[in-house]
Design brief:
Layout lengths: L22 H21 L1 H16 L4 E5 L1 H18 L6 E5 L17 H10 L7 E5 L6 H12 L3 E6 L12 E4 L14 H20 L16 H14 L4 H10 L4 H10 L3 H10 L4 H11 L14
Parallel strand pairs: 1-2, 1-3, 3-4, 4-5
Length: about 325
């Protein structure tokens, strides 16, 4: 198929006079076009929800999540993967990104490297991707050979595969198990998929990774209770979570956090159950790291809360 026929390569009739617009008119046009991004996410809601379920199930059984892309799509995958360890205290190996051209492609354009399906397949082999893993191929126009080759190789190795693209299936098909089509239409600057296509892809990856981590028990209410306390900002966030969800003063919350080995989720369970760190850790492990389930199980298997235990808020 000729690239000119792809939705992402077509000319946007609303911006034919882009070079003649005032700055204010340009800003307004971008705003109008970017509104289509949210509509595209809404249209893809069912496939995004399925992607969350598919990925969470794999990761809960010891699998890994891999993003594969080239250019802007690859960089967005790298960004999302890099944010998971500090936000959800995940092992860096749990969510990984594969970008055509490697780390050098993060800061310097390497578009020619996206044309090799063999390189994409080789990257899958190098990461020893297996039937336990999930591979998300990201390609705005859908035709990126590197991504197509990676998806094909991942399926051959038994992995679950998800294809994220901004063109309809009838324009570009894939061999993936699940399709996520984010149809934002032609770009204001024809073919520049770092614009709407990039924005909608970022939103989709936000949804996927956050939804997966919610399913894995790394969120309580809307708090990131598995936050990695690795700097002063995150230490402050951890203390705010503890003081907001308990009746503790900040100095008491700090003492509790230290007793829990700087693990916010463990600290909350200790506070609400009166268990010591070892007992609370064992209970969390038995409930798959799910704080809410651990609290429910504690209440079912123990006598009414003693004076040493507090009541968890009904979030």
């Amino acid at each position: 198929m000729q690239r000119g026929h792809l939705l992402t390569e077509q000319v946007n009739p609303n911006s034919l006079n882009l070079d003649q617009l005032s700055n204010l008119e340009l800003v307004d046009l971008f705003n109008q076009e970017d509104a289509k991004v949210l509509s595209a996410i809404a249209t893809a809601r069912e496939s995004l929800a399925t992607a969350i379920d598919l990925t969470a199930a794999a990761l809960a059984k010891g699998g890994r999540l891999f993003y594969v892309g080239a250019g802007t799509s690859g960089r967005l995958g790298v960004l999302d993967a890099a944010e998971c360890p500090p936000t959800f205290c995940t092992d860096p190996d749990l969510v990984q990104a594969i970008i055509a051209g490697g780390s050098a492609a993060l800061v310097r354009s390497s578009e020619a490297l996206e044309d090799s399906a063999e390189d994409g397949a080789q990257a899958i082999t190098q990461r020893q991707i297996s039937q336990h893993d999930v591979v998300v191929g990201i390609t705005a126009g859908g035709t990126t050979a590197y991504v197509q080759g990676a998806i094909r190789a991942a399926r051959q190795r038994g992995a679950k595969t998800i294809f994220v693209a901004c063109v309809p299936v009838e324009q570009v098909a894939s061999e993936a198990d699940l399709e996520v089509r984010l149809l934002v239409g032609p770009e204001i600057l024809a073919g520049s998929t770092r614009l709407k296509a990039g924005t909608v892809t970022k939103l989709a990856l936000n949804l996927l990774s956050t939804g997966v981590m919610v399913r894995l028990g790394k969120v309580y209410g809307n708090r990131m209770v598995d936050v990695a306390v690795t700097n002063s900002k995150l230490h402050d966030r951890a203390l705010r979570i503890l003081t907001e969800l308990t009746e503790l003063e900040r100095d008491q919350a700090e003492q509790l956090l230290e007793r829990a080995g700087r693990k916010v989720k463990l600290a909350l369970l200790m506070h609400w159950t009166g268990l010591d760190p070892r007992e609370a850790e064992a209970l969390l492990a038995a409930e798959g790291g799910q704080l809410r389930q651990a609290i429910t199980e504690f209440r079912k298997t123990t006598a009414p809360a003693s004076d040493s235990a507090a009541t968890a808020p009904q979030t």
